[in-house]
Amino acid sequence: MKMNKILFPTDFSHCGDAAMRLATAIAKDFGATIIIVHVEEPPTSYGGGEMYYGMMEPSLDEVKKMMHEVRPTDAAVPCVHRLISGDPPHAILRLAEEEKVDLIVMGTHGRTGFLHLLMGSNAETIVRKAKCPVLTFRQPDKVAE
To answer: 39-58 pLDDT, tens per residue?
Structure first.
């Protein structure tokens, strides 16, 4: 199996941390480059992300700064950053095709019930529609001590 490009979508949440470690290990083993992508959603009629997260969305400059803080866990693994706009799953799928990526590695939020119905599942859409393999990683729930 040959692997040159791995796409790593990020929404800057911690659920992607373990997925990045996994993407880095695979990229190192295959000598691949990681394409780190964040999708900015266009403004909607109901408001922005503050509807979901209870806070105002960061400015474009803040997003760019946060983007460049997302890096492979091994500095020897090459990466590039892409900031794109659109509906996240479809923008990610479009970029994957344009870049001819060999693998998409992404974390999942593991939402269920009403939150899943309300917010949908970007990972689920990507898994169903991607033309390349998709590796998802769900951070296990923390066990009470």
So the answer is: 988 765 445 545 455 556 77
